[in-house]
Design brief:
Helices cover 33% and strands 30% of the residues. With 382 residues, the chain is of the alpha+beta class. The strands form 4 sheets. Strands 6-5-14-15-16-13-17-20 form an 8-stranded mixed β-sheet, sandwiched between helices. A hairpin with a 4-residue loop joins strand 15 (206-213) and strand 16 (218-226). The relative contact order is 0.17.
Length: 382
């Protein structure tokens, strides 16, 4: 049955969660406008690790074939000593089901390109270099006033604008990201011969030294240390600094370090944690992805949690024929939060705990047990 009038949604933010929810809502015949603050649609970054539960949503979006062609699939992780000796190889849990790989590494810009293409193909209206400066709610909808002087009227607004979400602040949710005490150096590099999975070293000059294949020819490498005042590190020195930290590591690291020459290709970021407690919506505005929760990449589940949010929210919204009643919409958005909160809290807390054990120097921490329990739980569909 066709709705008496089209349902209209504004999605603020064109990252993983915003792009995904846009595609899924358009599939249900819902009118979607997507705005993204960055004029280049944020096609930046080095690499990303996507585990099976993220791949499950990407398959739902209809982009799995392109992801599979563009990335590098593997099913195990190695543990190595600082000199490069791999002393243990662990099979990964296939959190997306046995018909999907345990993990795919990808160049992050390529993943974003694939998702942007899907948004364009969905028929959504996309406006880049645009922000929502004001959201005015009443019982029947939301008036959004945009940075270019225009405005629009919507039945629902989805805030997918990331860790430092302005939407979150506009609707009066006070939680903000908090640093965990760690920071990560990342770089894209050529793939050394024989590198076919993620290998992790815990120890040496950094808390973690690791890498992930992202295609037949590329990897991204990362080094995790205690966070430093970012203002004290000259961006022009980023390549030198990452090579310095990588120098004591063996195995593939000498070849990787030799390729770290361009400081503009090195990214330095603090680890943050965020979990909005209580409802993730206020009236007709709801948060998804990093706007509602974020965690260190110690479990490589940040993108997966954001994609799962989009899937669950779109499922619930698509099943409702009308959102005219604020009470019924409030009930729907409450169910979305209830479906997500326990699973997200588990991932955030486990991700933070893995880092905290290292910061505290805990030598007998049950790292394999915590990872195994969390990944086993994520096999269940959200």
């Amino acid at each position: 049955m066709t709705d008496p009038r089209p349902r209209t949604v504004l999605v603020i933010g064109g990252g993983a969660s915003g792009n995904a929810v846009t595609v899924l809502l358009r599939r249900a015949g819902i009118t979607v406008d997507l705005i993204e603050a960055k004029p280049d649609w944020n096609v930046l970054g080095s690499g990303i690790t996507l585990q099976g539960n993220a791949l499950r949503v990407l398959r739902e979006l209809g982009v799995w074939d392109k992801v599979q062609e563009s990335g590098y699939a593997f099913d195990s992780v190695g543990l190595a000593t600082p000199d490069g000796h791999v002393f243990h190889v662990q099979q990964d849990i296939r959190t997306g089901g046995e018909d999907l790989p345990a993990t795919i590494g990808m160049q992050r810009p390529r993943l974003q390109e694939i998702l942007c293409e899907a948004v364009r193909a969905s028929g959504a209206t996309v406006r880049l270099g645009t922000t929502a400066d004001e959201l005015v709610q009443d019982g029947a909808g939301v008036t959004a006033r945009f940075s270019d002087g225009t405005e629009g009227r919507y039945e629902l607004v989805i805030g997918a604008d990331g860790l430092n979400s302005l939407t979150r602040a506009m609707i009066g949710i006070s939680e903000k990201p908090e640093p965990t005490g760690m920071a990560i150096w990342r770089v894209a590099a050529l793939r050394p011969a024989g590198l076919e999975r993620t290998d992790l070293t815990f120890g040496g000059p950094c808390y973690i030294a690791g890498y992930c294949p992202t295609s037949e020819n590329t990897i991204y490498a990362y080094l995790v240390e205690a966070n430093r005042d970012r203002a004290s590190i000259d961006p022009a020195s980023y390549a030198d600094e990452m090579r310095r930290l990588a120098a004591p590591y063996g195995g593939a690291w000498p070849e990787i370090a030799a390729s770290i020459t361009d400081p503009a290709k090195v990214n330095y970021t603090w680890f943050d944690r965020l979990l909005v407690e209580g409802s993730w919506h206020r009236g007709r505005v709801v948060l998804v992805g990093d706007a509602a929760h974020a965690c260190p990449p110690t479990l490589a589940q940040g993108a997966a949690m954001s994609l799962e949010d989009a899937s669950v929210l779109a499922e619930l919204l698509s099943a409702e024929e009308s959102w005219d009643s604020l009470d019924s919409l409030d009930d729907l958005l409450t169910r979305y939060h209830e479906r997500r909160i326990d699973r997200v809290r588990m991932v955030v807390e486990a991700s933070v705990q893995l880092g905290q054990w290292q910061l505290d120097g805990v030598r007998d921490a049950d790292v394999p047990g915590l990872i195994g329990r969390t990944m086993s739980a994520l096999k269940e569909t959200p």
